Every structure is written in structure tokens, then in C-alpha cells.
Amino acid sequence: MFGVDRFDAILPPGTGAIMVVGASEPTVVATKDGRIGMKSQMQVNVTADHRVIYGADFAQFLQTLAKIIEDPKDLTF
Question: Which domain of life is it from (predicted)?
Fold first, then answer.
């Protein structure tokens, strides 16, 4: 919303986790066939209290989130 591409959030007391999402930006990337191309990318950061949230579970959540963002047709019925 504000065009900020990345930042870190501080976890408030009593909160299990907080996720921040940066702005989507066009980026030069290698394509699956080894060529150079442009792709929109954004950075997602998570800060979690590992006394409350198991890190591996959050990693699985981020994998699922990435798949949904990359292929949003999975959100439709």
C-alpha cells in the first residue's frame, strides 16, 4: 500500500506471531527453462515466539501461502 518493499516487525508482548508483506516489484529472474525473464516478487517476513509457535509449522504455512499467491486459482471453487 505504501510501496515499501521490505521491513521487519517487532512482536508485541502476548502475541504469538506477526507477518509483514512488502510491495510487489518487477525483478529479473531465471525462468524454468534457464532463460532470463521478469517476474513480480515480494518479500514476506515472519516473526514468531517459538515458545508459542513451532517454527516448522510456520514454515509449512509460508510454503502454502507462496503456492496460493503464485497460483491463486486454488482459492476458487
Answer: Eukaryota
pTM check: above 0.70: no
Residue 27: its pLDDT value, please? 92
Catalytic residue IDs: 50
Task: Give the burial class of 43: count Cβ atoms within 10 A of its Cβ; 0-12 exposed, 13-18 middle, 19 or more buried.
Answer: middle
Q: What integer best gives the mean pLDDT of the chain?
A: 87
The candidate with the shortest Cα–Cα distance to 42, out of 62, 70, 23, 61, is: 23
22-63-71 Cα angle (round to 5): 80
Alpha-carbon distance 73 to 37, whole Å?
Answer: 23
